[in-house]
Amino acid sequence: MIIDQFESMGVEVIFLYMPAWEMFFSMHVLAAPEHHQERGRWVFEAEREHQELVEEIRNLRHETDNWNLVIDSDEWKNMRFLDIPETMEHLRQMHIIRWNQMVRCDRGEITVPERDKILSVINRYYQKIYRREEIILFPFLKRMIRAEADKCQNQGIWNWAGGIHERLKIEKDQIVFLKNREYAYPMSKIKTIYATVSTFLSPHLWNYERGGKMELVKSVRVEKKEDAIPADFLRICKALGDEMRLCILREIVHGVGTTKELANELQVSEAAISKHLRLLWQAGMVEKHREGNYVKYELVKESIDFIPYRFYEMML
Length: 316
Fold this sequence. Notes:
The protein is built from 13 helices and eleven strands. By secondary structure, the chain is α+β, with helices and mostly antiparallel strands. The strands form three sheets. The protein has a five-stranded mixed sheet, covered by helices on one side. Strands 3-4-5 form a three-stranded antiparallel sheet. It has a three-stranded antiparallel sheet with strand order 9-11-10.
């Protein structure tokens, strides 16, 4: 739903309400709740009322790119203006080949039964949890989007964009997203900006650009932020706070290793290696795969890239 549309500083700016975007990001929050403390009360209520469904959402994190599978794909351009039932019908009609083009999954192609399971979870989540949430959110989000559109018209698109997030930088001739690495886009290449607000995005900085079209999403707070340090970030700090675990990471940075291979290389017992690997796995820094009688461990390189990003999110 388009709320406002105008030209600003040579860019077509479209402020719109994207119900499917907000729904999928709410599923992302349920999948990783300890990182979204500003939605803690909402997560608690969802867990209390629909525990089994919430667990299904969490169990599908890997297959769905933490439930960003749709909104962070090239296919999203065909769904941006759809309501949620229309979006679900669009996904149902998509061939499995297009699903595999959309889903970025490092474990291999998604199967038809896996796709159908994802669709079932999305449908049940919408019917049992999010449909009521959307009724509550819609008038609030519509007012907030209208207010931000007015600010943008008064300030200019790039001045407005500079106030979205501490890690979104507007430089002389480019817009820079500071995430796991620096993403820079020349302003001259950006022809259209889709802008909206979200009650679920914080503390993330959303980054989407395709073919000169960019999405900018500003967080709005609806719950009081808790002061506690996120538990998932504490696990990362604990995993890195030991010399032996750092040595293990250094050993597997260029390949995979078993507990036996690592024990021989580092001259410690396999039991000790297993204990350290368990902590690294719980922190999301290594993955494990069974091959025959052996369990092989591999570094999740993205987790290393995101450490500075997570640190700044926690500090801000």
